[in-house]
Automatic annotation (TrEMBL):
Chain ranges of the PPIase FKBP-type domain: 33-119
Entries under PANTHER family matching the protein: 39 KDA FK506-BINDING NUCLEAR PROTEIN, FKBP-TYPE PEPTIDYL-PROLYL CIS-TRANS ISOMERASE FKPA
Enzyme class, broadest EC rank: isomerase
The protein's Enzyme Commission number: 5.2.1.8
Pfam family, one: FKBP_C
Keywords (A to Z) from UniProt: Isomerase, Rotamase
GO molecular function terms attached to this record: peptidyl-prolyl cis-trans isomerase activity
InterPro entries: PPIase_dom_sf (IPR046357), PPIase_FKBP_dom (IPR001179)
Highest taxon listed in the record's lineage: Bacteria
Catalytic function, reaction form: [protein]-peptidylproline (omega=180) = [protein]-peptidylproline (omega=0)
Record's protein name: Peptidyl-prolyl cis-trans isomerase
Amino acid sequence: MEKPVIEIPAGVAPEDLVITDLVVGEGVEAQPGGMVEVHYVGVDFETGQEFDSSWDRGQSIEFPLAGLIAGWQEGIPGMKVGGRRQLVIPPEAAYGPAGGGHPLSGRTLVFVIDLLNAR
């Protein structure tokens, strides 16, 4: 796979997590609280500006789901290795409301995540 180009959905930002499978994987299924290895790109819903990408660092990243933002904790389980999924994550499931102290507080975030491994 190669780095995805994220197309921002039209209209206003959703108030709830929106999960869209772009490619359905056929491997092991990611479990709540499990370990996942992913490639991902994140952009700001409003501006379309990319704020983070494992692709640009040239390596995938592995981490426990339990340590991630709620949108990832809810949006990755059930995904299978080999899959590509888009998550549109409202601020409440990301970095909290505006003024929350994180640069992305108050922002709706769009991620495209490739699941490389799950355990």
